[in-house]
Amino acid sequence: MKERPLFLLRGTVDNEMTPIWTSPTVLVWSQYLLNSFRRWTGRDLIARFESREGDAEALFGAPFVVVSHGTEPDPVLNYGNQAALRLWEMDWDRFVRTPSRMTAEPAHREERRRILEIAQARGYVEGYRGIRISATGRRFLVTDAILWNVLDDRGRLAGQAATFGTWQDIR
């Protein structure tokens, strides 16, 4: 069976493959991510465009990781830009079906849960570092991460996100 491209989705029209960032859901979620980051930190995560399409494409193509999950009791990943998909060694379809706790080894999940609770209470946390694991079992240390609450257009909690540009493999 032929493997699907990492950054494309099968569309509804003629089963055509389209870039992930053009999905209506991703367009909206990208705005939530960017607007929430600005709200909590007072900074922009990327240089903003005059269109949500431009913002979504730039966020997806950013050279740093952006990842998020929803508000389910066991939150599931709902966004990963291309840097995140590469780092966790997953395609989009697999990524967005993964419980976010699975991005950390069992020994590191309590620490991860604790920092997410702090971010939820404060709105965001800067300077986080922690060990994560890819789908193939490759371990890596994340440093200088920012975690923040993702709010919808009405200001309601819609999930949590993280970004970081520095990581190193752990042997």
Structural account:
With about 170 residues, the chain is an alpha+beta fold. It has helices at about 25-40, 50-60, 80-90, 90-95, 110-120; strands at about 10, 15-20, 65-70, 75-80, 125-135, 140-150, 155-165, 165-170. The strands form two sheets. Strands 3, 4, 5, 6, 7 and 8 form a six-stranded antiparallel sheet that branches. A two-stranded antiparallel ribbon has the order 1-2. β1 and β2 form a beta hairpin. α1 (about 25-40) crosses α2 (about 50-60). The longest helix has 18 residues, at about 25-40. The protein is globular, with a radius of gyration of 15 Å. The model is unreliable at about 1-5 (pLDDT under 50).
Large-scale geometry? globular
Helix content: 25-40%
Determine the oligomeric state from the structure.
single chain
Query: From the 3D coordinates, which CATH architecture would you assign?
Result: 2-Layer Sandwich
Q: Features of this protein?
A:
5 helices, 31% helix, 171 residues, Beta-Lactamase, disordered N terminus, alpha+beta, globular
Compact summary:
This protein is an alpha+beta fold and 171 residues long. The chain has five helices and eight strands, in the order ββααββαααββββ.
